[in-house]
Amino acid sequence: MKFQVNDKVEVLDDALEGKVINIDGAIIYVETSEGFLMEFDASELVKIEEEQSSMIASENISISQIIKEKQPTKRIKAEKVKSKDRSAPPMEVDLHIEKLVNSFRGMSNFDILNIQLDTAKRQINFAISKRIPKIVFIHGVGEGVLKAELDYLLSRYDNLKFYDANFQKYGLGATEVYIYQNS
Predict the structure, then answer these.
(1) How many Å apart are CA 153 and CA 47, to the nearest integer?
(2) Residues 19, 7: contact at Cβ < 8 Å?
(3) What are phi and psi of 22, to 5 degrees?
(4) Helix (H), strand (E) at residue 111
């Protein structure tokens, strides 16, 4: 829609109206009916015809009713869901390379380790964003290189603690991570 200086306009997502003072490309400068100078994108404004404004006045509708209709309806806040119970089953992430890629043939140990650590980092960030309190990383026993690198990675996070996972369930080859969630 083309606007011209002195056009009466209304803001689409707000209860504001005013007069176009200046136009600079797609930016429209509007002096509101309260006397404030504001700038809007042309897509945020609607031109008011003189007949429309007089029609509203003749229908005896109060301005407060119009403003009330324009304001977005307030959402009813849902009840807060209690944080997950500490006894909730943890998210399990198996870091064995055969579980992460289709074929690891021709990959160096360095490449394999990087894929495993990237997966661990991605899963930690996912758990933090989804407010998942526990993760178990299954790394296996082996020579302990992956466990050592995983421990180093986990130590760089402030909001979590990590320890050996349940021995009866995972043996020696797993690390459990507890993430402290900001409430």
Answers:
(1) 57
(2) yes
(3) -150, 155
(4) helix 109-129
E-strand spans in 34-130? 37-41, 45-47, 91-94
The residue type found at 46 is V
Q: Are 160 and 154 spatial neighbours (Cβ–Cβ below 8 Å)? A: yes
β-pairing, 91-94 vs 134-138, is parallel
Tokens of 10: 């209304």
User: CA 26, CA 114: separation in Å to the nearest integer?
Assistant: 48
Residues whose CB is less than 8 angstroms from the CB of residue 123 and which lie 6 or more positions away in sequence, other chains included = 91, 93, 135, 137
* Distance, CA of 97 to CA of 53 (rounded, Å): 69
Structure confidence by residue, pLDDT tens digits, 63-89: 666 666 666 655 555 544 455 445 667
Alpha carbon of 140 to those of 2, 59, 124: distances in Å?
Answer: 67, 77, 18
Tokens for 72, please give them. 């977005």
Is pLDDT above 50 for 136? yes
Asked if 93 and 136 touch (Cβ cutoff 8 Å), the reply is yes
10 Å CB burial of residue 96 (0-12, 13-18, 19+) is: middle
Q: What is the DSSP letter of 86?
A: T
**Which pLDDT belongs to residue 142?**
85
Q: Bridge-partner residues for 92, per DSSP?
A: 136
What tokens appear for 70 in the block?
A: 């324009």
